[in-house]
Amino acid sequence: MNNTKLQEKCLQLRKKVLEICLKAKTGHLTSSLSCVEILVSLYYGNILNFDSQEPDSPNRDRLILSKAQASPLLYAILADLGFYDKEELNLFAQKDGIFGVHLQNTVPGVETTAGALGHGLGLGAGIALKAKMDRDLWMTYVILGDGELYEGSIWESMKFASHHNLNNLVGIIDRNYLCTTDFTENIVELEPLEDKILSFGWNCITVDGHDVNNITENFERLKSRPSRKPTMLICNTVKGKGVPSMCYDPLNHGIAPRENQTDQAKKDLGL
Questions:
Q1: How many other C-beta atoms are found inside a 10 Å radius of the C-beta of residue 119?
Q2: 0.85 cut: is pTM over it?
Q3: Complete edge-to-edge strand list for the sheet that includes strand 203-208
């Protein structure tokens, strides 16, 4: 897709995620909206190698959504790409559906069940090491929330990945500066984040997390493995991007729009 088409796809998916969460009356809406451009770049920007008709193809690239609360977005993308019938999305977070509020690897196209934070990068590092030992050429991508960086296992995994020169591993931080209850820099300061990542032996690139063209260009370059080390992409984002009425408020974490927010949220996205 060209840049215009990628931007159109971002808007389309934002609308679908809002619809899913409103229908279910649950779901982490703002967490999903902050990483739309990241996932669109991967799935629609000719970055990820995947086959919707053969989700477990051994040659596929692996995508681990460690910030698994953004499941509505990934579910919507996988439905759009034909991994399963789009009608299934109507049963998000319903007892008769295939989707939980957090990710389940029983869903076609989902690599790992996740929910508790801090596990994804360790899994990704192990998967990438296995690929390197087998001389496989596929890549592993792990999407992290910035609040997830408070987990010590993230930094242990970074040391492991650097030690083993896992240049087939790309970490992606959705840097929206918000956690469950407050702004990250009020809880435990993460900055200077890039310096910390570099000190663990990784390459690090900071980008506008809503510039789908720039993100895609960086992913494309990393496919050629220009370094022996793993790379972390810090994507500066806005939690709730596309729905200004729900941005910058920690209390909007983990919810569908409240009754008094619904009309404005729809208006924000042109629904």
A1: 21
A2: yes
A3: 62-65, 140-145, 169-175, 231-236, 203-208
CA–CA distance, 18 with 256 (Å, rounded to integer) = 8
pLDDT in tens, 205-220: 999 999 999 999 999 9
**Tokens for 145?**
């929330």
Tell me what the mean pLDDT of segment 97-126 comes to: 90
Q: How far apart are CA 125 and CA 47, in angstroms?
A: 19
What distance in Å separates the CA atoms of residue 9 and residue 61, rounded to the nearest whole number? 21
Do 141 and 74 touch, CB atoms closer than 8 A?
Answer: no
Q: How far apart are CA 257 and CA 53, in angstroms?
A: 34
Element (H, E) at 207: strand 203-208
Q: DSSP string covering 164-197, please?
A: TT-TTEEEEEEE-SB-SSSBHHHHS---SHHHHH
**Any residues with CB less than 8 A from the CB of 203 and at least 6 apart, and which?**
227, 229, 230, 231, 232
Q: Which top CATH class is 3-268? A: alpha beta
The residue behind tokens 């972390």 is 232
pLDDT value at position 96? 80
* Domain range summary for the chain, segments of one domain joined by +: 3-268
Cα–Cα separations (whole angstroms), residue 209 to 142, 143, 213, 244, 248 = 15, 12, 10, 16, 16
The 8-class DSSP code of residue 238 comes to -
Predicted confidence (pLDDT) at residue 30 exceeds the cutoff of 90: yes
Share of the chain above pLDDT 90, in %: 87
Q: Please state whether the peptide bond connecting residue 192 to the residue before it is cis, i.e. omega within 30 degrees of 0.
A: yes
Residue 271: pLDDT band (50, 70, 90) is confident
